Amino acid sequence: MRKIFFFLAIILFSALWTFYSARAQDRYKSKGMRTYCNPVNLSYRFCLDKPSRREAADPTLILFKDEYYLFASKSGGYWHSNNLLDWDLIETQDLPVEEYAPTAVVIKDTVYFMASGEKNPIFKTADPKNGKWKVANPGLPFNLTDPDLFYDDDGRLYLYWGCSNKYPLYVVELDLRNNLQPIGNPKELFGADVKDYGWERPGDDNTSKNNPWFEGSWMNKYNGKYYLQFAVPGTEFKSYADGVYVSESPFGPFVCQRSNPFSLKHGGFICGAGHGSTFRDKFGNYWHIATQTISVKHMFERRLGIFPAGFDKDGVMFAQTAWGDYPQLMPVKKNEPVQNSFTGWMLLSYKKNAAASSTIDSLPTTNAFDENIRTYWSAKTGDKGEWIGVDLGRKSLVKALQINFAEHETNIFGKKGGIYYQYKIEYSNDGVNWKTMVDKSNNAVDAPHDYIELSKPVNARYIKLINLHVPGGTFAVSGFRVFGNASFPKPKSVNSFTAVRDLADTRNASLKWEKDKTATGYMINYGADKNKLYNHLMVYENNYVELHGLTAGVDYYFSIDSFNEGGISKGNQIIQAKANP
């Protein structure tokens, strides 16, 4: 009898979960909301040099006349959008789009642009949508790298720059009434300080003794204060992050914000949240768009990620990167609080059993489900009909999918015809009878990180991705990611854990907690204030982690959330790790 009641309870729970999950998605739809998933699904251009790979980095995103324009390094143009979700590429012959680290600024009814390079000319246009630009300043009297143009609310224009493992950032004012010529000499600002700031140390885990790259300046003004952002320690590292210094003046002196780095994504499917720009959308919400790293085929193999950002009541700047490569809601109004953007759709495909039509031995199917964009599976060919499938282990409510294609054995350079992917996604509950979930057989848009939000959730256990066309090379996938919810109990909350500071080097700390076999992973939340745990580290499976990116001499606070396919269990304990106990 007990078994019958238990079985009926499971059926009822599953039905209720399906009903309320569908209702929740209907609420999103009724409000006109859509979702997105990092990395941003752009038509990342293939680089012009060997090896064949895609790249975009060092993004500047601006709002001009209620439309968005995105500039990124070596992208063959720049992108335009009305909603931060759908992007079209604008090609131009007028701008140096093959240079690194472009910047743009809106001054009244005109957009100004410049990039790294010799002489650093500045361009302008009143209509960036048509791709036509004019020269506003043919060149500055000095060379610079990683520029940032900042227009203050008092009508003055400033230029910040710097990209070096030896030198600091600089600033100079530009004269808007004299063809943007510099006013006076550049002023030296501040540089790296690895002795105090562990997050400035190079390496995937901030453990290298080399000098960091100090680069990628960006300025925002908030409540009368100036927030000068910069990137460390290097674009190829998982620890690539943006820090921020604050001042009462655009010339400084600047003081390092206690909560730093303000933009960090150190774990999960794709890492890195450095060298970016912070902007407000048409509803007034703050965002931070930044560079994310792959760095397998080449150090500069990179993508872009966009994260909700803001300033708290105390003026502390932050970016919300937790769950930053899971589906997020794109607001259609002023979104308060900005932290409330995660859909709650969990990853259903992590390390699940997989099969494929064919496999290169060194690139197994497990690579498509290990939550690591740096590894990938590949079929032996790029032929129509090659496929990869996954068994979710149980019938689950699927709400979204992300297909991250990998460029294996491609021989593509720049832009040409035929660069797009065509495929079908089928689903089944018995592994025998299949139905179509997604049909992209007529797709002609380049979408290398294709994200599909289903119009209606689908109950499925088996899911198969079938190739119809790849632009070159083999059919290869770095992440076949399935999101939704399973009728599965959440893991236990992390009731206790240890957080121990390395007293010989307080830039380091170690955390350990009891492992829960039902947990897929854990989210470590930490910060320099008990109520400001703005940094996060996603950990799969392990119950131990070492951090090397803390600020020396500063006390830190930690909490740990556990998660699985059923949802998230918030940690109910915050532990202080003192620098000087």
Short characterization:
The chain is mostly beta strands and 581 residues long. The protein contains 1 helix and 40 strands.
Q: Would you mind describing this structure in some detail?
A:
The chain is mainly beta and 581 residues long. It folds into three domains: 297 residues, Glycosyl hydrolase domain, family 43 (Tachylectin-2, Chain A, 5 Propeller), CATH 2.115.10; 141 residues, Galactose-binding domain-like (Jelly Rolls, Sandwich), CATH 2.60.120.260; 81 residues, Immunoglobulin-like, CATH 2.60.40. 5% of the residues lie in helices and 41% in strands. It has one helix and 40 strands. The strands form nine sheets. Strands 25, 26, 27, 28, 29, 30, 31 and 32 form an eight-stranded antiparallel sheet that branches. A hairpin with an 8-residue loop joins strand 21 and strand 22. It is globular and about 75 Å long.
How much is the radius of gyration in Å? 24 Å
Output the CATH homologous superfamily of the largest domain.
Glycosyl hydrolase domain, family 43
Sum up the overall morphology in one term: globular
Percentage beta strand: 35-45%
What is the correct CATH architecture of the largest domain?
5 Propeller
> Are there runs of 5+ residues with pLDDT below 50, and where?
1-30
Which descriptors would you attach to this protein?
single chain; Tachylectin-2, Chain A; Jelly Rolls; Immunoglobulin-like; 3 domains; 1 helix; 41% strand; disordered N terminus
Helix-strand blueprint:
Elements: H1 2-30, E1 34-36, E2 60-64, E3 67-71, E4 78-81, E5 88-90, E6 103-107, E7 110-114, E8 122-125, E9 134-137, E10 148-151, E11 157-161, E12 163-164, E13 170-175, E14 181-188, E15 214-222, E16 225-232, E17 241-247, E18 255-256, E19 263-264, E20 271-280, E21 286-293, E22 302-311, E23 317-319, E24 328-330, E25 346-347, E26 354-356, E27 377-378, E28 387-405, E29 422-428, E30 435-439, E31 449-469, E32 476-486, E33 497-501, E34 509-513, E35 521-527, E36 535-540, E37 544-547, E38 556-564, E39 567-569, E40 575-577
Antiparallel strand pairs: 1-24, 2-3, 3-4, 4-5, 6-7, 7-8, 8-9, 10-11, 11-13, 12-15, 13-14, 15-16, 16-17, 17-18, 17-19, 20-21, 21-22, 22-23, 25-32, 26-28, 27-32, 28-31, 28-32, 29-30, 29-31, 33-34, 34-37, 35-36, 35-38, 38-39, 38-40
